[in-house]
Amino acid sequence: MTEKQEKILQAALELFAQEGFHATSTSKVAKHACVSEGLIFRHFGNKEGLLQAILDEGERRFRVLFADIVMETNPGRVIRKTIEMTSQIDASDYDFWKLQYKLKWELEVSGDEKMEPLKLALSNAFSKLDFESPGLEVALLLLFIDGLGSAVLKGSSIDVNEITQFLLKKYNL
Amino acid sequence: MTEKQEKILQAALELFAQEGFHATSTSKVAKHACVSEGLIFRHFGNKEGLLQAILDEGERRFRVLFADIVMETNPGRVIRKTIEMTSQIDASDYDFWKLQYKLKWELEVSGDEKMEPLKLALSNAFSKLDFESPGLEVALLLLFIDGLGSAVLKGSSIDVNEITQFLLKKYNL
Amino acid sequence: MTEKQEKILQAALELFAQEGFHATSTSKVAKHACVSEGLIFRHFGNKEGLLQAILDEGERRFRVLFADIVMETNPGRVIRKTIEMTSQIDASDYDFWKLQYKLKWELEVSGDEKMEPLKLALSNAFSKLDFESPGLEVALLLLFIDGLGSAVLKGSSIDVNEITQFLLKKYNL
Amino acid sequence: MTEKQEKILQAALELFAQEGFHATSTSKVAKHACVSEGLIFRHFGNKEGLLQAILDEGERRFRVLFADIVMETNPGRVIRKTIEMTSQIDASDYDFWKLQYKLKWELEVSGDEKMEPLKLALSNAFSKLDFESPGLEVALLLLFIDGLGSAVLKGSSIDVNEITQFLLKKYNL
DNA sequence: AATGAATGAGGGTTCATTCAT
DNA sequence: AATGAATGAACCCTCATTCAT
Hints:
Four copies of one chain form a homotetramer.
Chain A: H1 3-19, H2 26-32, H3 37-44, H4 47-70, H5 75-88, H6 94-106, H7 116-128, H8 134-153, H9 160-170
Helix pairs in contact in A: 1-2, 1-6, 2-3, 3-4, 5-7, 5-8, 5-9, 7-8
The structure holds a DNA duplex (21 and 21 nucleotides).
């Protein structure tokens, strides 16, 4: 990965996240990355290839993010870490996460599969803690996580820490 | 509102909801509505005007939808109706609601103000029922509602009724 | 000629004169005349027909304007009146005359034939006054008149009366 | 300035001069220049940018044309050269000069400032030759020049050399 | 690897004109 | 006579992509 390749990816990430995939022209990306437009196509084939490269990087980050939770053996900590996930994301990564959300709507890229390991870990955790309907608990928790992430990234004035604490209390964690 | 105007709005709603605003060309809308492309501009000025016309209709529907909840005096029923909201939406209205979600991401049209009356009604309801932190309860519930709507409209395999019942039980409703 | 027909002609004259024929849309003319766009085509067939109607009216005005000069028997007065022609045009007729000039360039409508009677009268006048080359004198004078009209209608800061007097003196008139 | 850029400019000059700015589509320019339409916008930004590029070149030619006159120290020669200006223009430059005239009417681009140096030189010349009203003499002469240029470029049958000679004689030059 | 000129398809929009009422 | 909805061609312009260098 050359330096210019990085610059293109960075510029694309920013612009796709801020303006959306379709609303961002490759020419804008090139200008933003201080690179000739042709170079984008040399390195990534086409506009979708550029997106895919960003998505692949996303895949990796998801794995890193989830790994910490999935590896956790204490069931309470699994749930706690899941709930605290949103409040942990670094402000410098906002563009990255925003893009993930955006794409789900703009290109109907689901990204649901990525959640499977987390679902399993959570399901297992709720079972161990003798919750009545572990499956529904998982679903409910993930809906909350999704809603919270969505709110935060859209710039809602919500206080993430406060509501995170509030939910933890509900689960006695 | 002439017959062709309706057809344009309907076609635009469908396409904007399915493909997104930027990815849908006015020419596609025209073809879908079996109408000349120029007519779109005669009636709605420009592409954004067309979108606005759909949004205005949306505004109306939001008010109708919320009115029923906001008018409710029994606090338990306010919360119940809010939780059941998603499961009530008619399949034939999916495009409409999908578009609302999509636009929040594609054009960063927040639509947060529209929620204010609902927030108030819920806050009031939680207070009456002696919940400790009514404000946080509202926030939490709305995050869940948002997440659920998002999941359903994105075609998740989630069972809306089941999870709705599950949540009602959590609130002892 | 109905009242609406007049209004269309008036609006078209103004707009064609100010913005040019090609830059003025029939829709703009209709709006300016407070009339439906279709009416223009009912009355004048097409956009060029509308222009022609204005031009026909122009033809008439040219004849009226020149008649006074051509009928003059005193040779000195023929020349004097020609020179004074520009300073006589009423400010309310500026649009009309401006359009004539504009069309000569935009549509290459010459309007040269219209000048023939004037040329003859001038030629005759210069002959009677024993000018050496009446033909050239006519040509020169008309070039000047054309230049002066052009300058005035383009909004030059030239003082028409002053220069008119100056020229009259050159011809000892 | 690449070869294709030149071809675009040349084609635009011809077409704008012949048909007018508004009546010439960028697509026509592209075809005439045997070039893709998009290239016009890559190089000149938009249609007006294309026009401006032509106008800038015009600016240059004006300076060259006037320089010769303005540098002249002999007052008689200043006037003589001014009068002879029109007869000097090369037939191959007709499109260029025609466009200058056309634009004055179509877009109301005055170009009056460009004449200032010439006005000064002429005013000075008439003063030195003890003309009574140098200012008016200048105005008169320029009106004539404008009228003559206009006539010639519109394809009048006027004999430029003959009338030029005639005027020179009037000034005893 | 990198540029920037060049392309052609398609973008949103305006146009003159027609037609039913 | 008059309207205004409706059309389709053409408008200027932007797009993703290719190519020669």
